[in-house]
């Protein structure tokens, strides 16, 4: 017991001698240590809060509100940012108070001038409000593949102010939420795979369709990403030098391109085996002279 009291007394003497001035107030070193303590405390609280949010969302992902893991992840990231901003704001106010800066008057002035500032920050407010609607209406979430205006890619981050898209080339597009008006989400529900197969006019259409039917059955039995089909729609176009036969299938989200590539590969291999010609542009010249 005495040892504990001695330690406390030593800390008190150290604080009085080195961290306070003659008036009993914190000196410059004392204020620096207090600022450091505030920052460390905020970091710890943020870390604990983030873990609590992750744990809470993990247990609630099966509820109706959290339709899928992507939405839960997006909500978690937004909540973490809100908590971080609030704690940083509280820390700044505490630090200002420590330097005898009247934060009450600053907040009052901010409230009075908020209307004037608001006219200059209309776009910011619009971005934040739109961000809330995007989140709670579940228009898209982190990991979804979407098209916004002329930009498309995978949603890498959905914040209160901006949405970040990563396209196939690796470019990161940062879009203010206020500009998001029409969104095409390509990861919700079954997607369509469409392949147009061309054969020469000289080939028998019925024979070509029979070969394609065998290919479709083979692909359907071996590819788990196909939900329905592939189905042959029949002749869908008569070109200048080819007859087009369309094949359509429903696939899992983001798998339509892989299914289309597989269909084209299998069709090419089957046509080669059956000697069915895939046409190419030809030019016939009449009236030439024999040498």
UniProtKB/TrEMBL annotation:
InterPro entries: LSM_dom_sf (IPR010920), MS_channel_1st (IPR049142), MS_channel_C (IPR049278), MscS_beta-dom_sf (IPR023408), MscS_channel_2nd (IPR006685), MscS_channel_C_sf (IPR011066), MscS_channel_TM-2 (IPR011014), YbiO_bact (IPR045276). Belongs to the MscS (TC 1.A.23) family. Gene3D superfamilies: 1.10.287.1260, 2.30.30.60, 3.30.70.100. It is found in: Cell membrane. It is a multi-pass membrane protein. This is Small conductance mechanosensitive channel. GO terms for molecular function: mechanosensitive monoatomic ion channel activity. The keyword ATP-binding does not apply. Keywords: Cell membrane, Membrane, Transmembrane, Transmembrane helix. Pfam families: MS_channel_1st, MS_channel_2nd, MS_channel_3rd. It comes from Tissierella praeacuta DSM 18095. GO terms for cellular component: plasma membrane. Residues 81-122 form the Mechanosensitive ion channel transmembrane helices 2/3 domain. Residues 124-185 form the Mechanosensitive ion channel MscS domain. Its main location: membrane. Residues 195-278 form the Mechanosensitive ion channel MscS C-terminal domain. The chain crosses the membrane at residues 32-53, 82-99.
């Amino acid at each position: 017991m005495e040892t504990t009291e001695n330690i406390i007394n030593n800390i008190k003497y150290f604080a009085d001698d080195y961290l306070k001035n003659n008036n009993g107030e914190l000196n410059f070193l004392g204020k620096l240590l207090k600022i450091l303590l505030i920052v460390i405390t905020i970091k710890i609280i943020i870390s604990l809060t983030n873990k609590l949010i992750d744990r809470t969302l993990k247990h609630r992902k099966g509820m109706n509100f959290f339709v899928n893991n992507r939405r839960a992840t997006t909500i978690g990231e937004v909540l973490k940012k809100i908590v971080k901003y609030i704690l940083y704001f509280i820390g700044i106010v505490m630090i200002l108070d420590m330097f005898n800066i009247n934060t009450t008057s600053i907040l009052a002035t901010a409230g009075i001038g908020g209307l004037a500032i608001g006219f200059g920050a209309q776009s910011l407010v619009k971005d934040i409000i739109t961000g809330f609607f995007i989140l709670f209406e579940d228009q898209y979430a982190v990991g979804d593949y979407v098209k916004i205006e002329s930009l498309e890619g995978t949603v890498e981050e959905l914040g209160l102010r901006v949405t970040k898209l990563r396209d196939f080339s690796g470019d990161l597009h940062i879009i203010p939420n206020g500009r998001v008006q029409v969104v095409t989400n390509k990861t919700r529900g079954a997607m369509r795979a469409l392949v147009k197969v061309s054969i020469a006019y000289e080939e028998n259409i019925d024979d070509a369709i029979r070969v394609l039917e065998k290919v479709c059955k083979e692909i359907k039995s071996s590819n788990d990403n196909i939900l329905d089909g592939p189905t042959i729609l029949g002749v869908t176009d008569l070109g200048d030098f080819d007859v087009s036969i369309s094949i359509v299938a429903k696939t899992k989200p983001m798998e339509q391109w892989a299914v289309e590539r597989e269909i084209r590969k299998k069709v090419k291999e089957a046509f080669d085996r059956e000697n069915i010609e895939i046409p190419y542009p030809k030019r016939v010249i009449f009236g030439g002279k024999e040498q």
